[in-house]
Every structure is written in structure tokens, then in C-alpha cells.
Amino acid sequence: MSSPTAAAPPEAELAATAAEERVSVASNWTLVWWRFRKHRLALFCTLLLIGFYLVVLVPDFFATQDPEATDAKQAFIPAQPLHLFNAGQLGLWAPAVAGKRNAITLRMEWQVDETRRIPVGVFVQGEPYKLLGLIETDRHLLGPASGDAKDRLYLLGTDRLGRDQWSRLMFGTRTSMTIGMIAVAFSIVLGVILGGISGYFGGLPDLIIQRLVELLQSLPTIPIWLALTAALPQDWRPEQVFFAITLILSLLGWTTLAREVRGRFLALREEDFVLAAELAGCSRMRIITRHMVPTFMSHIIATSTLAIPVMIINETSLSFLGLGLRPPAISWGVLLQEAQNIQTVALAPWLLVPGLVVIVAVLAFNLVGDGLRDAADPYTH
Amino acid sequence: MKRQLLYVLTVLALIVSACATPTAQPAATQAPQPTAAPADTQAPQPTAAPADTEVAAPAYSEAPMLAELVAAGTLPPVAERLPVEPLVIEPFEEVGQYGGVWRRGFTGPSDYNNYVRVMYDALVRFSPDGSTVEPKIALGWESSADYKVWTILLREGAKWSDGAPFTADDILWWYDNVLLNADITPALPKWMKNADGSVAKVEKVDAYTVRFTYNEPNSLFLYELANKDGGDRTFAPFLPGHYLAQFHPNFTPQADLDKLVAEAQFKTWVELFASKNAPFENPDRPTMAAWVSETRISDQIFTLKRNPYFIAVDTAGNQLPYIDELRFTFFADAQALNLAGIAGELDMQDRHMNLMNYPVLKESEQQGKYHIITWPGFGGADAVVMFNQTYVKDEDLGNLMRTRDFRIALSYATNRSEIQEAAFLGLGEPRQSVAAPWHPYYPGDDVAHKYTEYDPDKANALLDGIGLTAKDAEGYRLYPGTDKAVTIEISVVPAFGPWPDVAQLVAQNWEAVGIKTIVQVRERALHFQMRESNDIQTEIWNQDTGGFPFTGAPKYDPRVSPGLALAPLTRTWYNSGGKEGMAPTAELQKIVDIIDSAKSASPDEQVELAKELYTHWVDQVYEVSILGLSPMVQGVVVVNNSLHNIPTQLGNDWPLRTPGNARPEQWFFEQP
What we know:
The complex is a heterodimer. Chain A is of the alpha+beta class. Chain A is built from 15 helices and four strands. Helices cover 60% and strands 13% of the residues of chain A. In chain A, strands 1-2-3-4 form a four-stranded antiparallel sheet. In chain A, helix 8 packs antiparallel against helix 9 (238-253). By secondary structure, chain B is an alpha+beta fold. Chain B has a six-stranded mixed sheet. In chain B, a hairpin with a 2-residue loop joins strand 7 and strand 8 (209-213). In chain B, helix 17 packs antiparallel against helix 20, helix 18 packs antiparallel against helix 21 and helix 24 (586-599) runs antiparallel to helix 25 (603-620). The longest helix of chain B is centred in the first third of the chain and has 18 residues, at 2-19. Chain B is globular and about 85 Å long. At the A-B interface, helix 14 of A face helix 13, helix 14, helix 18, helix 21 and strand 18 of B.
């Protein structure tokens, strides 16, 4: 009579069991996600990176002007902040500026024109472009809404040729982030294939690949990049240089990943579930693709997330040294290279903003990568 | 204002050359006392010493550091070191004071023309404004009425920096052992060649007189001679034979020479000889310049000390130079050099200073205790887009570039005032690359500004007129009857000026009239190589020979090398005697004819020929000349506030050897 009630588990215990139940039936990816979302900073950075990649997809939409359009009469305008309230009411506006060349120092000097405010609209019409290269449109996220074609926004000021720094930054973001992604994608392919061969087969292939990895890792990277990029034909068009740089970066960048993959293969080879699969008569291919790769896929993703910022930095450094992308291509490195002179540092510090953006992007990737790495192996605590 | 200055300077020049005559000397001796810097030391005494040697020797003063050596007996007295008739230089502002170190920057061993420009070590030299030629090492010259015979007079008693006498033999040594030596001079330079290719004759008349004889009139002889200072690693027409003989097979057994060559790790004796002849590489090589090397240009700090035998004095009889020492500091890049300038660590620097840093330089003037002066260019243009007249890789484009209306159209399509604002800080003036307005060769405003106005409508009309009416979807003009868009490439090198920026602005202008334009920023050596191999379509460079269309290597002449990519195949045609390359068009041949006839023309005729040349050049629009007369090329000058006698207006050009034509030997530091 009394035993059933006593045997009934308390509510709390039930809940705990349910939670454990959920954990034990959850897929690997669900576990990774649960673990990852606890890492608040990584989560925040993920959102940031999504924002970056939105810019990569549709830089024209975020740009306020044509990034190439020069206007000599509008050179070196400092950044003008966006104001949220107009006369106590919600309404975006930006200050108008007026300026002229100082007759003695020959410097362009700009003053905010207090009498005029440029109303700023959202989703305004402007420069026509093709969204994703397909849809013709002329809508931009932000833009002057005064209807006067001469009004411009100077969210990040202008450079020495009067080009809009904000718009250039948007297009630079596309180039630099894309190079990072593509280079890492190449690296992953190379790394997984070579690392997989090395780890799974062992023996001579392992020996050769590992010595190759060591050789590549022992080479001082910057001089090698310099040599390789200097060997690029000088008459290549910017797009060709872009792909060549990407290829160079990935050809030298796959080694860490290959090591990682090899280590995983070596470790997993001895695991019970692999033995079980073998005993069950699975083919080698199936064991690799169905059992082993999914187990360390999260690791690969974490590692490649950490590799992207390295690639971005590499591209930026090369372009900064004048050996990577060259104008008229726009990338973060090119923007910084153009700011690499006394004039800019002394008189137009707002042109150094791409440097900040590089820092933010690289930090974000690193933090996300950290979070992913922690979350990548949900079974260990 | 400028014209006024020209007159003042011309008058000054006359006074100076007048001073160079013996009669002027006693005047100089009248007032050595008040200005002589060594007054506070015991130095004036030694100057009195030579009184017993010569009867009427003028009382010269010298730098305290030399007076000490004289007192110690290691150096002869100043009157013995100076020639009988020294070069007397009228200081720009005032008679100076001895002492000080001139700190200057250079960018490495290849920056040797930095040394060359400061020294301007030549027999004769250009006046500061560039309008006339004046004596320097030479005392003077005479020419026959037909300009075929030129007699150079030297200064009796002039000495090399090691104390050896400088005589006619030193010029003959150059003629016999360098010019006529096939190893050193495989091809005769133009200025020493007769029309039939034979060499001009050089004879010694007496110890201080040398005669140059040409078969044809050579009215440009002095202009050429004013540039023969060893610049660009050439050989000056006066060499210290007493020193260089040890490196020359005419005087030294080949076996000994080979040993020296091997020791110095050169391949041939010619390389060794050239290196030993370069004062910036060999401090032992005696020179006639105001300062003598102490270290080498390959060192981190390249130091020069005053030449105790320098031939010049100021109007008060003080031996020049005033400044004791030159210290060239090595900078790995021009940016670092500019920063040193801004920080006030350079006393006088024009070379490598970047025009775009002008605002920063100007704003830091007080902190750095310097001031900025500008020396605008000497005519020509600071940026031109040159069309290749012999481009053949793309026959359609080649023909288009050979079409005058196409070139005129692109000239009209170019918004020069925008480029002036964006790339030149609003300095200079949009113009064709002709001589400067203050120069006798100036062909007039009509020519200088022809085709330079911004008029896209005219450009479009002209392009329509040559059949480029059809356009593709992007708005680019198509070759008639094809679907091939007209695409033109501008090759540009990031050197000297903001040329890559100019290129991008020009490209936008041209695209606006429907000509697709690609900008290729190239490394310098590659660009030069492409010029040689006729791979350039258009290029951006400067036209810095605007004041010298007939001498040196004028960029208007399709035959010169190094030149711009005006017509590389036609140059080959001329060089091969018509066997290879592309025959010149009548228009190009006309340029050659004008330049050749100038060589034997009288100075008045030369003025007319120059105007004709410029008019023809501008008419043909072989280049889209953007802008000139800006201080872009070595014209932004940092000057220490305590440095004096530097002219604020000056002819600025490579043939003038700026700043050498500002006479650095009479610059001085105000002593505390």
C-alpha cells in the first residue's frame, strides 16, 4: 500500500532525468549549439560577423555613394556624425559642411555649416546597382533625403580624392572578408584531404606529408608571401591578382589544419565505435565519411574559424606593403595602404578607420572560434 | 614679378662675371675685416703671410678650421691655394659666416645625383634663374663667329682638392684616355660628335687654354658643357689624371690592373675606373667641388668636408664655402626622410620632399624651426599622358592613337582643374608642356593653353567625328563595325608625383566620354622595360625638359633614350639607320629636323626654332599635358631658419642641377 508512493520519484528528480534524457538523445550538433550559446561573447560576435557578411553580400546597399567617384572639391572632409533627433523629434540628419583651401598651408579646411542640416532617410533612392548581381535597384540603407543631388553623407569622411570613405569601406569589407573565406575554404579542402590521408593510412604517405607540413611551417611566412606575390605578373588585372593572392594564402595556410585532422584520425582510429563499425563490416570509405569525419567536423569548423582572421590579416598586410591587391581594387589593406602617409596620419586620421574594422573583424572571428572550439567537443567536460 | 627677378638676376650675373676679371679684385680686398668670421680667433694673421710671396696678392680670408691647419704648417696659406683669379661670388643676401654642418637626407647608394646636384662641379654652370651660362671652374670662354671653335680659358693657379694643379692637361686627359677609349666610351656622346659621326677635336693651346673644334657650327656648346659634371655616373670632361692614371691601362700594366679589379670584385677595369672616378664612392678621388667626400655614399652617413682649395671667394675675399661640413643621412624610405624634415632635423632639403606633405610641413614650421620655400618647375609639365605613336600590339588601338582628333578629344575630355585640386593642392597651372612664361622660348599663351580647357561636348563631337559613334551596353564606344569596345591602358609608376591619383582621375574623365580606360600601377623597372619593348599604350610621366628642347635628352625628340614612350619603334628606326622599326611620320620627322637645325643656329634663331617646335608639338597633341609649373619635383624646400643666402625664387630643373644653381657654397649658418 505504502510502497508505490514511496517509490514515486520526486518532481525535481523527474525533471533532471528528463534533461539528462534530452542530453543523451540530442544530436552532436544540438549539443554543440547548447554549449556554444552559453558563451555570450561568442554569440554576440557571431551576430557581428553575420552583419559583416551581409555587407559582403550587398555592399552597394550599405554604401551611400559610388566608392570610385572622385570629387576634388570635396577632399579630406572629416567624418560627420549621424544625429538621431531633429528639433526634439525623431528624425535622422547629418550636418552639412563647407570648406576651402587655406591659402598659406594649402590644407583643405572644413567647417560644419550650422545653417543647414541634411535630412537622412532610410531605404532611400540613390546610385542604381544590381542587388546580388541580379536585381536592378537603387535603394540604399542610408542616404540624403533632401532631394538635392549635391548633398552627400560623410559617415566616415572623404579621402584625398574626395571619395566617400564609408562606401569604400563597404566594398573593402567585401573583398577582404571574401578573400578570408575563400582562402580558408581552399585550405580546408587541402587540409582535410592531406591530413586524412596522412592520419588514416600512416606509413610512407604520412611521413611525406608530415615532412612537407614541417617544411612549409618552418618557412618564414612574410618573406615567402612577398616572394610569391612579387612573382605575380605585374600586368594582371585586379580580379586575377585577387584570386592569385587567395590561392597563395591557402597554399601556405593548410598545414595547421592538416595536422589537426591527422591527429583526430589517429585518435579516432583506436576508438571503440570505429572498431564496432569495422566489425559490422563497414567499408573504409563509409567509416571515414559516416563515422569519423562527422565526429570531428565541429573541430574543423572551429579551426577554420580561427584561420579566417589570420588570412584576413595576411591579405591586409600584403596589400598594405603594396604587394597584394593594388588600386583600383578596394580592400582593407588597400585602404590602409592609401592611408600610409604622413599627410593622412597628421591631417586626416579618419582614414585610418579601416584599421579599427580589421581589429574588430579579427577579434570577432577569434572569439567565435574560441567559443566553437570549447563547444566542439560536447562530451568532454 | 618673375620677369623682374629675371632681370635682377641677369644683372647680378653680369656683376659676378665682371667680378671675375682681375680688375675687380682689389675691390674685394677692401673689406675683409668686418665680415671675416675668424676675427675672434687668431686666424686673420696667416692671411697676411702670403704678402711676401707675391707682390700684389690680395688679402684673402679663410675658415678657422683651415687657418689652424695653415698655422700648424700642414696646409699652404690661402692665397697660395686660390687661383690667381678666383671665382668671385656675390652672396644672395649678405656676406656670410664660416661654420656649421648642413644636415641633409638621401635614400641610398642609387641616390648619387643627390650629391651631384648639390656639388654642380662643372667648368661652366647655369645662372640661378637658368637663363644664362656662367663660368665656374673655367675662367671664361670664347667662340669663333661661326660657333665652330670654342676656346675654354682656365684659372691659373687653380688646384684639385689634393693640391695638384688644375690645367689644360686635365681636360686633355679626359679626351685622350676616356672619350677616345673605346672600352669606356663605346658610343660617342652627341655633344662631342660631328654631323658625320666623327669626334670633335680637343687641343691644348697652352697650360690654361683648351680649344674644342667642330666641323659644323655648335651654338649649343655652352649649354652642353654646363651639364658636364659627372651627373648620372657619366665622366666630366676634366679628370684628375694624376690620380686616375693608376686605374687606367694606358698608364698601369694590365696585370696590376687586373689584380685591383679582382680585389675590388669588379668584372672589368672599366667598372673599377668608373667607381674610382666617382667622388661619392671614393673619398680619395680629388675634386674641384666645394666639399670633398670623407665617407662613401654606401655608408649610413655620407660626410663631406670643405675643399681647402676651392676656387671661389665671396665679394669680401673670404674663401668659400662658408659651411664646414655636409652630412647626408641615410633614410630607408622617403616617408621617413619627410618626417625628419617635419621634425626640423634637416637643414636644407628639397630632394625627396613630397608635395602632398606641404600642409603638414607648413603647419610644423615653428616647431621645427624651419621655413618652407617653393621652387616651381622650369616649364614643361609635371604630369602628362603620353600616347605611344608606334603601338602595334593592337592595330585598332594603334591606329586610333595615331589619329590626331582622337588625341585632341581626350585632351578636351580631361578635367585639369580637378586634377590640380586633388593631386597638386591647387598649385601649378593647367598647361601644355612648353617652356615657362618667363623663358625666352615661351611660345605664347595661345600655344601653352591650347586644347587644355575641359570640354566633354567637344570631346564627344570629335570622337563621333572619327566614327566612334556606336556604343555598347555600358556606354563604351565601339570600333566602327565591330562589337569591340575601345579600351586604352594608362601605365603609371608611383614615383616623384601623385601620378597614380592623376591616372585614376584621367581614367574617370575618359570613361565619361565613352573610352574605357584601365589604370595599371606598375613598378618602375617593369615600366621602363615595357617602354623599351614597345608594350606601353599610354603612360604618365613628367616633361621636365621644357626649358631645354635642344640639349641633353629632350623628351620631345623621338630619338632620345631614356625618353618617354612617344614612338619607341621610330627610335629603333633612327638608331638602325632605317633598317628596323617604324619609319617616322612627317610630323615626327619635323621635330627631328627642328632639333637638328637648332644645333647650328644662332641664339636668336634658336628662340624661333624653339617656338616652332613647341607650337608643332602642341598642335600634334602627342601627349595630354595636364599641368606644370608646380613645385612637385624637388621644389618643396625645407630651410633651417638660421640658414641664409638661399634664393626664394630659382630655376628648378635637373639640367640646372637644382639646388646646385642656388650656389650652396655661399649659403651660411648664422653663428650664435
